[in-house]
Amino acid sequence: GWDGYVGLPVSFTCAQFAANVIERLYTDALPPPQLVPMSDGTLRLEWHMNKYDLEIEVLAPYEVVALRTDLITEEEQEIEVQTDFTELAGWVSDLAAVRQPALMQVEG
To answer: When you count CB atoms within 10 A of the terminal residue's CB, does the N or C end of the chain come out lower?
Structure first.
């Protein structure tokens, strides 16, 4: 009931796997993610920077769902990850790149 309702505590195995995910995806170019406990006992890792929102939900060991929103194009992508974190690592690398919105062309 930590959330004022019936929120479950984050399980040790979920927290431990989330720490492993952070370690696996770590890059010096990014700050640590925000850690958001979920009321179902899972844990979400979040970054909001460089015109991206990236949310990684650690549901259990080897059960991860990631959602990326590109705030420039408003495109949303979702992937499920079990053991191959290659695509998710690319998303994390994209966060480190400073992006500028496309300039509007003015006709004269």
So the answer is: C
